[in-house]
Amino acid sequence: MTDMELTLPLILIALLLFIVGAAVGSFISVLSYRLHHDHKGIVKGRSKCTTCEKPLKALDLIPILSYLTLRGRCRYCAEPISFMYPLLELITGAAFVLLFLHFPFVVPDLFFSMDLLGLYLLHAFYLIILIFTFFYDLQYLHVADSVILPGILVGLIATMAPQTPHIFDSLLGAAVAIIFFGLQILLSRGRWLGEGDLRIGIFMGVILGWKLVIVALFLSYIIGSIASLVIVARTKKVRGVKIALGPFLVIGTLISLFWGERILGWYLGVLI
Question: Do 247 and 138 contact (CB within 8 A), yes or no?
Answer without folding.
Answer: yes
